[in-house]
């Protein structure tokens, strides 16, 4: 049995009470507020390798990894040292630096899917700019997205499907004008019929189709390669640009992301998360011809006071350099596969209805009856209750998952086989409790399993 000790939250609770006097909901990004799991947020004071420590000195094996960026684990020495070195010369100049060239060269010379790149300060910004570029390039207004894909919090993409095969988006946030949402068409993933109908209904109006080629923000809804290829072909046939939003999958499923994994050439790719080594960086890239439309070369405006910030570039350079070492991705994927397979074997031996999906070092627990989930609508919100219980049990056994069952887990290079074995035992014991409750589940607010709590 893994060690069970109800964690102390005294200091975190004090900090949270104080934070609520400063920030809406006490946080600077909503999922952090622990609304979908038991208890209140843990305030973190330190991370090292695969571990996190909270303000009460509880130690956890971390599978959230800052929601994806930390593919080398926390506080990797190569990243830390490069950042400190660069910081000695100042933090920001608002003028070009050699570091931007260095990070761009590292990416472009190892990625045949883009020829030019522009750095931004977040994934949201990268996506927003990619959409503007697609509209500027095609002279069309509408965009098409898939239900269950998250693309950051830009207005045009805070939309969800209405009822029907092909629908205009309905805003999923207050403050987004209905007229904006009407420029966004929303269809289900893995649905060729809907895609064909959308291109017929909105002939010559769709500037871009945007998709997470590895949808990993609403469960892990792995798509068939054939569907992604169909999408590519339909976009080409209709003069529509295909945007791969690789803010999660970029540098994660391979150095060249999902484009490389599936060998499909999109027109524009967006990056974030891993690209900044834990500092705020996003990017979008495309062919030189498409990118020539961006200002100051072309008419599509896009800018940023801190874009290409030297300290952030330094972190990116240090992290991406490690990822290029031979065998890096193979080893990480192998470790994750064996971790996931052992959990699957354990669950199936005991007859627990839990499925795990995995690609590379990303995994997701589906507490669902379905074998494989490819569409957002196939996730039963009620199944989130099981995740909520597991999350509570895991915290008490020293394992930290992102506080929502819709979020995926990440394995980093710092997660050794030994650490993964320890985490596995904690997961086994937690599943035993979840599926054999001997006592009522811990007190907490009613499950709010809407998938609109987003980091
Ligand atoms: C995280 C994420 C974003 C948003 O990036 P931020 O840096 O949080 O603005 C956009 N798209 C995808 C696919 C993401 O995973």
Structural summary, described in words:
The protein has helices at 10-22, 77-87, 98-108, 123-138, 178-181, 192-201, 225-237, 257-262, 288-291, 310-323, 328-350, 384-395, 417-435, and strands at residues 44-48, 51-54, 59-62, 116-120, 142-146, 159-160, 167-168, 170-171, 184-187, 206-211, 241-245, 268-271, 282-286, 355-359, 362-366, 399-400, 409-410. The strands form four sheets. Strands 4-13-12-11-10-5-9-7 form an eight-stranded mixed β-sheet, sandwiched between helices. Strands 1-2-3-16 form a four-stranded mixed β-sheet. It has a three-stranded antiparallel β-sheet with strand order 14-15-17, with helices on one face. By secondary structure, it is of the alpha/beta class. The protein contains 13 helices and 17 strands. It has two domains: 10-63 and 337-453, Aspartate Aminotransferase, domain 1; 77-323, Aspartate Aminotransferase, domain 2. The structure holds pyridoxal-5'-phosphate.
CATH architecture of the largest domain: 3-Layer(aba) Sandwich
Can you say what the CATH homologous superfamily of the largest domain is?
Type I PLP-dependent aspartate aminotransferase-like (Major domain)
Could you tell me the number of beta strands? 17
Overall pLDDT metric = 94
- State the secondary-structure class: alpha/beta
Helix proportion range = 25-40%
Tell me the strand percentage band.
Answer: 5-15%
Distance N to C terminus: 33 Å
Q: How many DSSP H or I helices?
A: 13
| Low-pLDDT runs | 443-453
CATH class of the largest domain: Alpha Beta
Question: How is the biggest beta sheet arranged?
Answer: 8 strands, mixed
Shape: globular
CATH fold-level name of the largest domain: Aspartate Aminotransferase, domain 2
Q: How would you write the strand order of the largest sheet?
A: 4-13-12-11-10-5-9-7
């Amino acid at each position: 049995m893994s060690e069970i000790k109800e964690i102390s939250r005294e200091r975190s609770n004090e900090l949270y009470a104080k934070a609520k006097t400063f920030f809406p909901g006490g946080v600077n990004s909503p999922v952090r507020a622990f609304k979908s799991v038991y208890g209140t947020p843990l305030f973190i004071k330190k991370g090292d390798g695969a571990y996190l420590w909270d303000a009460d000195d509880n130690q956890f094996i971390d599978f959230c990894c800052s929601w994806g960026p930390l593919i080398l684990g926390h506080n990797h020495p190569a990243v830390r040292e490069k950042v400190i070195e660069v910081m000695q010369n100042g933090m920001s100049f608002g003028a070009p630096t050699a570091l931007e060239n260095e990070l761009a060269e590292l990416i472009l010379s190892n990625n045949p899917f883009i020829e030019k790149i522009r750095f931004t300060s977040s994934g949201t910004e990268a996506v927003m700019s990619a959409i503007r570029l697609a509209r500027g390039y095609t002279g069309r207004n509408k965009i098409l997205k898939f239900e269950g894909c998250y693309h950051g919090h830009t207005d045009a993409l805070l939309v969800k499907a209405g009822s029907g095969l092909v629908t205009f988006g309905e805003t999923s946030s207050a403050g987004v004008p209905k007229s904006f949402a009407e420029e966004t068409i929303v269809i289900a993933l893995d649905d060729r019929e809907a895609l064909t109908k959308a291109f017929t209904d909105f002939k010559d109006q769709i500037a871009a189709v945007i998709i997470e080629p590895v949808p990993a923000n609403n469960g892990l809804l792995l798509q068939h390669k054939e569907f992604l290829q169909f999408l590519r072909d339909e976009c080409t046939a209709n003069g529509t640009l295909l945007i791969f939003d690789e803010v999660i999958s970029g540098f994660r499923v391979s150095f060249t992301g999902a484009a490389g994994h599936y060998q499909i050439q999109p027109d524009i790719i967006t990056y974030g998360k891993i690209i900044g080594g834990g500092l705020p960086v996003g990017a979008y890239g495309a062919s030189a011809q498409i990118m020539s439309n961006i200002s100051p070369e072309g008419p599509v405006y896009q800018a940023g006071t801190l874009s290409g910030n030297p300290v952030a570039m330094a972190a990116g350079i240090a992290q991406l350099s490690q990822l290029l070492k031979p065998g890096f991705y193979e080893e990480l994927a192998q470790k994750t596969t064996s971790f996931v397979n052992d959990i699957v074997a354990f669950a199936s031996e005991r007859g627990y209805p839990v499925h795990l999906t995995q690609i590379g070092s990303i995994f997701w627990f589906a507490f669902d009856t379905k074998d494989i989930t490819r569409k957002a609508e196939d996730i039963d919100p009620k199944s989130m209750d099981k995740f909520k219980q597991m999350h509570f049990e895991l915290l008490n056994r020293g394992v930290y998952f992102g506080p929502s069952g819709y979020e995926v887990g990440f394995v980093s290079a710092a997660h050794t086989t030994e650490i993964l074995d320890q985490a596995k035992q904690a997961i086994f014991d937690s599943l035993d409790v979840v599926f054999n409750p001997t006592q009522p589940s811990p007190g907490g607010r009613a499950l709010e399993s809407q998938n609109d709590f987003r980091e």
